[in-house]
Design goal:
By secondary structure, the protein is of the alpha+beta class. It contains two helices and three strands. Strands 1-2-3 form a three-stranded antiparallel β-sheet, with helices on one face. The radius of gyration is 14 Å and the shape is flat. A hairpin with a 2-residue loop joins β1 and β2. The longest helix has 18 residues.
């Protein structure tokens, strides 16, 4: 089975951090590509180790990613 999930990658200090908001799983790395691969590995391990109930519970939560505009000053 394949899941299409979201990866949010941000620069943090000298490296990068990645978050998959659908499952609340994060990872890190020195480059964007390494961070993405590390997140994919963490997600794969989650699916290998989690019970079907835990997978369904986490995936059943609604996650919305949308731009927001804020006026300051």
């Amino acid at each position: 089975m394949k899941y299409k999930l979201t990866a949010i990658i941000e620069k943090e200090g000298d490296g990068y951090v990645a978050l998959c908001p659908e499952l609340d799983i994060a990872s890190q790395g020195d480059t964007v590509e390494e961070t993405r691969k590390n997140l994919e590995e963490a997600l794969t391990l989650f699916f290998e180790c989690a019970s079907p109930e835990e997978v369904q519970e986490r995936l059943s939560q609604e996650v919305y990613i949308t731009p927001v505009e804020v006026s300051v000053g």
